[in-house]
Amino acid sequence: MARYPSGVTIVTTRDHSGEWWGFTATSFCSASATPPLVLVCLAKTAECHPAFLTAESWTIHVLHAEQEELARRFGTRGADKFAGGHFVPNADGSPALSDSCTTIDCDASVRYDAGDHTILVGEVTDARMNESLPAVYFQRRFRSLQIP
């Protein structure tokens, strides 16, 4: 799979006590146009797995190349993922990144067992974009798009 280029996202939510949780995901895609559904895959061993199993909503942030450190932090077990002040609470109190390429708010739709992962399917409730180009992960390295 290292030979397959993918975008880089972080996915965030809050649990029922209000604690923020998140993870880095390169397995993200559109699942349906009507209704608008997207999916991400989460390892069952992730510290945040229990929070996402019960979350009513989550937010997917498509990262740009300058956010490599953030992607690495969200992919590191035990790291203080929300350090640095880049996140603010959105309308439902979940953490939202202010400067991602694209921000997609989702209501939980379906969760599927997939071996050592859980597939989280969310119905898109809102999406915001800016002009920055997304990061690409290829051959275990972060890369930037070059558009002529």
TrEMBL record:
Coiled coil: none annotated. SMART domains: Flavin_Reduct (SM00903). Residues 1-144 form the Flavin reductase like domain. Keywords: Oxidoreductase. It comes from the Bacteria. This is Flavin reductase family protein. It comes from Micromonospora trifolii.
